[in-house]
Amino acid sequence: MLGLLVIIIVSGVLLRFIEKKNIEVLGVIPTKQRSVQFLIGFVFITLICLISVYVETLVLDVEWIRNESINYTAIFNSFFYHVRSALTEDLIFRGAILYILISRLGAKWAILISALCFGVYHVFSYGMTGGGIIPILYVVLVTGFVGYVWAYTFYKTKSIMMALGFHLGYNFLMAMFYQSPPTGELIFQELSKIDLRDWNWLFYNIPKGIFPSLMTLIFVKQYVKYVSNSNKKIID
Asked: What is the rounded distance in angstroms from the CA atom of residue 22 to the CA atom of residue 183?
C-alpha cells in the first residue's frame, strides 16, 4: 500500500509541475460513468478469458480437477492483491507518464512507447532476462500488445477505469485456473494436457496470447463508437 501511495503522490507532482494539471485528469476518482466502465471491462475480459480457457481445454485436451475444499479467504485475499497490483501497474504505465507523453508526443507515439515499456517490464517481472531470445520476444509481443490495448483504452475513455477492469479481470480470472502469485489455482487445478514443444508451442501460444487483447481492442473501438453516437443523438 505504501508503494501505491508513493506512486499516486509522484503522479500528482509530475502532472502539477509538467502539465499544470491535477491527478483527476487520469480519471482515477470513481464516478458513475467510470464505475460502469470498470464493471464493463471486468465482465468483458472475464468472459473472453473463460473462452480462452475453454478453447485451450479442447485443443490441448486439458483435464481439470476442481479443488475439494475452496479457500474463500485465499480468493478474497487474491482479489485485493490483484486490485493493488493492477492499479499500481496502471498508474505507472497508463497514468501520469502516459498522459504527459500523449500531450508532448501525440497519442500514437505515446501509446507505442507505453506498450513497449510494458512488454519489456514483463521480461524482468517474469524473471526471463537469462532466457532464450524466442521466449523473450514472445513475452514482449504478447504483453506489449496488452499494454497497447490498455493504453489505447485510457486515451479513448479519458480514464484508467476500463483498462483497470480489464487488467484486474484478467489477472483474477486466471488465478482461478493457473498458478499465479500470491496464490493460484484457487478453484481448479490442471492435471494433464498435451505438451507442445518448439514451433508447435509457438504457433499455438501466439494466437492464444494475442486473442484476448485483439478481442478487447475490437470491443473498445465499438464501445467508443457507441458512446460517441449516443452523445450525438442526445445533442441532436
From this structure: 36
